[in-house]
Amino acid sequence: MMILKPTVLRAAPLLSRMMMMSSSSFSTRNDTIIGSSSADEVLKFWFEDLSPQQWFIQSDQVDTTIRNKFLDTHNKAAAGELDNWRKDARGSLAEIIILDQFSRNLYRNTPQAFAQDGMALVLAQEAIGKGFEDDLSTEQVQFLYLPFMHSESLVIHERAVELYTALGMNLEFEMKHKAIIERFGRYPHRNAILERESTPEEIEFLKGPDSSF
């Protein structure tokens, strides 16, 4: 894979710690309200304006900034109106980040947070089929692969293991996700949000560490 710029590999435990950190320690650099954004603006915001710690923690400020800057763009992506972005790696990655990541920021703790997961996964599969990983940095490729990790399909997770093994990062974190899908066939921590009834085994599982991501 051709790496366009130096990146720091982040092991899976680091991602897990990031998710559990308090949001009060972080801030975004720009809260300017704008309309529909370009793919380059999405990537600049995600990879330059935000720190890596801010990608995975819960932060009201980050959520608000994304809502102010990218809600219109997210709506267009969800409606399938950004298909012209898919002609190259950067545009494809930007659309995937909007659907896979921004959905979680915009609609945290609601069913809409996961509503675009299927579309993000299909776009990621198409991007991989076109070999777009070769035009992205390792840091960027991890977000191309995240829709696989977010899937509740064991078949998709088996493919995710192959992808993360080749990438050389976050494999351990993917294996933790895969183990949950193997055990329950879904992510139990989503049950309450999606109004799914939890089994007694899932209820017990949710009491322990590493039960949600």
Give a verbal description of the structure.
- By secondary structure, the protein is mostly helical.
- Helix content is 57%, strand content 0%.
- α6 (117-129) packs across α7.
- Mean pLDDT is 87; it is low at 1-35.
- This is DUF924 domain-containing protein.
- InterPro entries: DUF924, TPR-like_helical_dom_sf.
- It holds the Pfam family DUF924.
For the largest beta-sheet, the strand count, sense and barrel status come to:
none
Number of helices: 10
* Amount of helix: 55-70%
Number of strands: 0
Characterize the quaternary organization of these chains.
single chain
Shape: globular
The radius of gyration is 17 Å
Low-confidence stretches: 1-35
What order do the SSEs take from the amino end to the carboxyl end, as H and E?
Answer: HHHHHHHHHH
Distance between the termini: 28 Å
Mean pLDDT: 87
Strand content: under 5%
Structural class: mainly alpha
Pfam family, one: DUF924
InterPro entries: DUF924, TPR-like_helical_dom_sf
Organism: Skeletonema marinoi
Protein name: DUF924 domain-containing protein
